[in-house]
């Protein structure tokens, strides 16, 4: 397995222009970019022209990760060739299937399962329900095939997001790449580092990923009481105070606000917030978030059994909002967990997809550092 990385900046163009001569047998191109860069599309077209035989998958972000740097005005790309493994990819639109879950089922059904080692998925984080995406994929995939990925973002704006598939830039899309081959090894790990505080409230009114009431009271009024003047900056300020959702069925998951409806006094989240669950506010200490990133790297390396060739990092934009100038420290500590030759690429998302532990089904997370690591033996 080999790879070459590229970077395009609004002001400077390509640091190194993509060229098919850089890598023989290119099979997969991953691209992560700022919304304005992806919308303009010229750099995506250049990548497609340079590597016409390669599958392309990517999305817009809340920040682009390349090696240990994070930026907001770039498109970062990695072109990968495999010694013996292969990839297949497909994309669907939720408008063609009615909802996110049905679209995800249709997507998963496209992949031949014989020899499938891993599925990596990206979805529009504004117009899809991340929990439904994961539920639909899990309904079709056998539990022997791990699933990781994330939700495309739009910085702190929560306005529009795009998925890139084979050169096409699409909204309302879910796209995935399946990895095949006996010699391919895929590791993954996910960890947060957030700390719950205050009382727990029962969710008394919700539909899917939209919450209306906690303890019989408007959830928006509840948030405004606790956020004070910061409530005027919702949904962005909600990144600093996500909710821990506690059910009887699984470990607590974190949910981040992505939109506000003042008329309905409701909040929409990246994933489901079921009636009867309990919600508790969370806050973060920067050192604990960085420690969480280190733990994600440790889990990934342990599962893989060695340092990977390439790591795809998907961290939540809420972590970036807390870490601010310390953001790159969570990337650096992941780098410290692997060897110097390991490639690193990724993005800041509004939702991360991974199992809690190896052998479990994937779920939608918020506010985690999630790593997908690839190598061949």
Question: What report would you give on this structure?
Answer:
The chain is 22% helix and 40% strand. The chain contains 8 helices and 28 strands. The protein has helices at 35-40, 42-50, 100-109, 130-140, 219-227, 286-304, 317-323, 327-337, and strands spanning 2-9, 13-14, 28-33, 55-60, 64-66, 69-71, 74-81, 86-93, 116-124, 147-152, 163-165, 168-170, 173-180, 184-191, 195-196, 201-207, 210-214, 217-218, 243-246, 253-255, 257-261, 266-269, 278-283, 310-316, 343-349, 352-355, 362-365, 369-376. The strands form 4 sheets. Strands 15, 16, 17, 18, 19, 20, 21, 22 and 23 form a 9-stranded antiparallel beta sheet that branches. It has a 7-stranded mixed beta sheet with strand order 2-1-7-3-4-11-12. It has a 6-stranded mixed beta sheet with strand order 6-5-25-24-28-14. Helix 6 (286-304) packs parallel to helix 8. The longest helix is centred in the last third of the chain and has 19 residues, at 286-304. The mean pLDDT is 93.
Key terms:
seven-stranded mixed sheet; 377 residues; nine-stranded antiparallel sheet
Class of secondary structure makeup: alpha+beta
How far is the N terminus from the C terminus? Answer: 9 Å
Give the rounded overall mean pLDDT.
Answer: 93
The parts where pLDDT drops under 50 for at least 5 residues are: none
Tally the helices: what do you get? 8
- Give the helix proportion (percent range): 10-25%
- Shape descriptor reads globular
Tell me which oligomeric state these chains represent: single chain
Number of strands: 28
